[in-house]
Amino acid sequence: MSQPQTSERLAEIHAENIGGIDDTTVSLSSGVTALTGRNATNRTSLLRALMGALGSDRVSLKGDADKGRIELTLGGEDDSIYTRTLAREDGTVVMGGEPYLEDSEGADLFAFLLENNEARQAVARGEDLREVIMRPVDTDAIQAEIRQLETQKRDLDEQLDRLESLDDQLPDLERQRTQLEDQIEDKRTELDEKEAAIEDADSTVDDTREQKAEFEDALDDLQEARSDLDDIRYRLDTERESIQALEDEREGIRTELQEMSETPAGDLSDIDAEIDHLREHKQSLESTISQLQRVLQFNEEMLEGDSPELQQALQNTTDSGSADEGALTDQLLADEGETTVCWTCGSEVERETIDETLESLRSLREEKSHERNDLRSELDELTTKRSELQADRDRRERLDRKLDEIDREIDDRESTVAELTDEQQELEDEINDLEADVEALEAEEHSELLDLHKEANQLEFELGRLKNDLEDVTDEIETVEADLDERENLEKERTTFQEELADLRTRIEQLEAQAVEEFNEHMQTILEILAYENIERIWIERAERTVREGRRKVQRGVFDLHIVRNTDEDATYEDTIEHLSESEREVTGLVFALAGYLVHNLYETLPFIVVDSLEALDSDRIAALVEYFEEYAEYLVVALLPEDAVALDGQHHRLNEI
Predict the structure, then answer these.
(1) Which of 78, 308, 342, 644 could make an S-S bridge to 640, C-beta 3.0–4.6 Å?
(2) Average pLDDT of 632-655?
(3) What DSSP line would sit under 45-109, residue for residue?
(4) What pTM was estimated for this model as a whole?
């Protein structure tokens, strides 16, 4: 994997009324910045402020403030400024501004790695990791592309069906051409013989030139009239054949319309209403999830001591107790895991009781997240159904329009047939008169030569008609062959569509398999950096299970996490996340989240990675991890206790005051 190359530039973050921060401005250099200090020093608040400016909604407004603001300036040739505003409106906090990211979902999962990061927590709770891993992948776009390709393929199928009928006509047309060529050859031979007889007769018969010229003129007029009549008959045949073809096509369309299922307007409107309802429900769930997240975030900050409200609560407790209990932060650390002051009622409660309440809230958040995911699936199903119904309706409308066009064309061609029939009758009357004239001339002066000329004239007429027929058949064959030549291209195009559809339909599965493979590779690399002797390997395995999606049960891939451990005797065995200690779960969750940062290439679109709560790692492992990810992130901001920061490279920027 190629690693990003970055140039040195300064970033400045300014925060007002964010978390536990009143007002601060902090500069961050390219590379690693270690926020070093004890709890209750606003390190987490600063990290959340940075996350907010980058696009995350997981940032809180100071408890006693109505408005807050974050501003991130990235230095360079032209400074870029990104903002985030927070304001209380009707009991909720409304966010605005222009942050770095329009969509922070991937970053929230794999770049903003605080203690309550969803990816880290999903591992710690032993959840199916597929939804977490695949969430940044835009599968809706894939489904839309599938529907578009299916429509294009249907159009190609219709064109190829039409060409298939042309293919059946081609052998008959070729036989007809061969027969016409043979007839023309026979007729030409007969005419040559007749012209030779005329030449012989010319040398022995002395007809008057005037009589011969008059007779030939009469024959020419008769031949021209017969030729015109032949053209009229051909046009009539063509028009009648076209009318028959149109009537057949009309009958086929009517049959197809009868076979198509009706799509009442109510069906689509009902589905639209249901989609709107589900979207509103989904938005409501997302709002609930967001509120739960803020409640959890606030309470976690209170437990961490990174909040002015908690400081005041502890100060009140200190004032009512011994004056020699020590510094405020030391109190918090000493009481952690035992009792603490409830920031809601002011009474002293067991820390475990608060943890249990928070776990219940996390479970509720998880339940709402699953419900939201089910709604997403149901929405996808309804959207697909709506697209199919709309496609049927569009197809019916196209067929109705085609029927109207065919009816109009049949009317036009029937009018043309009526006109041609009148012309045919007029020409037949004219030909009868011309034939009478020729017969009269023959009666006046009958001769063998005149008979020969008459016969030759008739042969020329018949030969000309055959040539016209041959030309028409040849043109029709060339048209059919040109269409059939296009069939090969259409078939190739349809094959391409079929392949693209097959690829798209398996794209999600392929993306899942690729994501699993990359996660496993990166997790192994990170584990090797951490060098845990009792953890040999952590990997994800993709499996198929029957799950509910909306109202249906479908086969879907799930991602199971496996852990191979080492014993003191160098034996290995497979374990599960449930059997790991709390610190081992935290490490595993961190490894998973960091791997996600690399798998989804977040360093290509986001210059920051934010990390907190590394207490489960010793200082040397923290230093090794920081050094590895320094090569990917332009800015790596990590919150560390002073004793954990000592192992970092001395050249790294340290920030001790916020």
Answers:
(1) 644
(2) 88
(3) HHHHHHHHHHT-S---B-TT-SEEEEEEEE-SSS-EEEEEEEEEETTEEEEES--S-S--HHHHH
(4) 0.54
Lowest mean pLDDT among 4-13, 369-378, 451-460, 467-476: 4-13
AA identity, residue 227: S
Q: Is 295 helix (H, G, I), strand (E, B) or coil?
A: helix
Per-residue pLDDT of 357-396, as tens digits, reads 877 887 888 788 888 878 887 887 888 888 888 888 888 8
Answer for the pair 73, 50: CB distance below 8 angstroms, yes or no: no
Residue pair 549/370 in contact (Cβ under 8 Å)? The answer is no
Contact present, 35 and 43 (Cβ < 8 Å): yes
Strands 92-96 and 80-89, sheet pairing: antiparallel
| Residue 42 burial (C-beta neighbours within 10 Å; 0-12, 13-18, 19+) | buried
Predicted pLDDT of residue 108: 93
CB 356 within 8 A of CB 364: no
Tokens of 391: 């496609």
Please name which of 556, 624, 576 lies closest in space to residue 124, comparing C-alpha atoms: 576
Amino acid identity, residue 279? R
Rounded Cα–Cα distance for residues 9 and 592 (Å): 30
SS3 assignment for 170-182: HHHHHHHHHHHHH
Per residue in 482-534, pLDDT (tens digit) is 777 777 788 888 888 888 888 887 777 777 888 888 888 888 888 888 888 77
SS3 (DSSP) at 190: helix
Backbone angles phi, psi at 117, to 5 degrees: -55, 135
DSSP one-letter code for 571: -
Instruction: Identify the residue whose tokens are 């790596």.
Output: 636
321: pLDDT strictly greater than 60? no
∠ CA 611-616-622, nearest 5°, is 55
Within 10 angstroms of residue 343's Cβ, the number of other Cβ atoms is 18
Is the alpha carbon torsion for 189, 191, 193, 196 positive or negative?
Answer: negative
**Cα 293 to chain center, whole Å?**
30
What are the angstrom distances between the C-alpha of 280 and each of 268, 277, 375, 383?
Answer: 18, 5, 10, 15
How is residue 578 annotated by DSSP? G
